[in-house]
Amino acid sequence: MKALITRKVGMTSIISEDGALTPVTLLSASPCVVTQVKTAENDGYTAVQLGFEEGKHTAKPQVGHFKKSGANPKIVREFRVTEIEEDVKTGATFAADVFEVGDTVHVTGTSKGKGFAGTIKRHNFKRGRKTHGGRSYRRPGSIGSMFPQKVFKGMKMAGQMGNEQVTVQNLRVALVDLENQLIGLVGAVPGPRKGIILVKGAK
After folding, report:
1. CA of 57: how far to CAs of 11, 61, 67, 100, 199, in Å?
2. Contact 69/89 with Cβ under 8 angstroms?
3. Percent of the chain, pLDDT > 90?
4. At residue 94, does pLDDT exceed 80?
5. pLDDT at 118 over 90
6. For the whole prediction, is pTM greater than 0.85?
7. Which fold has domain 3-144+152-201?
8. What is the mean pLDDT of the chain?
9. What is the C-alpha separation between 157 and 88, in angstroms, rounded?
10. Which of 2, 32, 37, 91 has the most neighbouring CB atoms within 10 Å?
């Protein structure tokens, strides 16, 4: 199973043998423990639940849940799969070596929060004219006609920007460092440094 819970370390660049410079995001991939295997017969869907890092103040219900795996993880996430592989059993561990250089992965994280933002910053609206009597420099403009007498849901307006789940697809694995437990992905990954990033194989 090609899936891991990781933490974002930051960005750097690597130089290939032909001298090309490639921007890379480093992810800390300490071993993940399988805390539960869900099947369609028992749970209605097929998924693998992974635990990441070590928890300190775990609640009693979670302690009982983790007892079978023999771990006490801090962070738990589920990955939907089509079928359960033979090596995926409760208590099994997966590290950075589940991925290889050249693999294509999808990554999911929580984007940086930007606070309350206007329509120009949030939705790339254009600024109004500043000459010939124009007074609507950064206003959103019309938000609907008179007839419905309401604003339709989904209207692009000012509001909270960022701090939402973002998935970036088809990133290439450029580095796998088992000694330092690191994975390097070509390009940018959503979220701040130390943020939780879910990495799953694209195929």
Report:
1. 32, 12, 15, 35, 26
2. no
3. 97
4. yes
5. yes
6. yes
7. Elongation Factor Tu (Ef-tu); domain 3 (2.40.30)
8. 96
9. 46
10. 32
H or E element: which one contains 8? strand 3-15
Nearest to 11 by CA among 182, 203, 201, 202: 182
Name the residue type at position 46: T
Contact (CB, 8 A) for 91 and 70? yes
Kindly report the number of other CB atoms within 10 A of residue 27's CB atom. Answer: 25
Position 203 pLDDT exceeds 80: no
**Which tokens is 17 given?**
């043998």
Domain regions of the chain by residue span = 3-144+152-201
Measured CA to CA, the distance from residue 15 to residue 22 in angstroms comes to 6
Closest CA to 201 of 182, 174, 173: 173
**In which residue are the tokens 């910053």 written?**
121
Q: How far apart are CA 173 and CA 184, in angstroms?
A: 6
Q: What letter would DSSP give residue 44? A: S
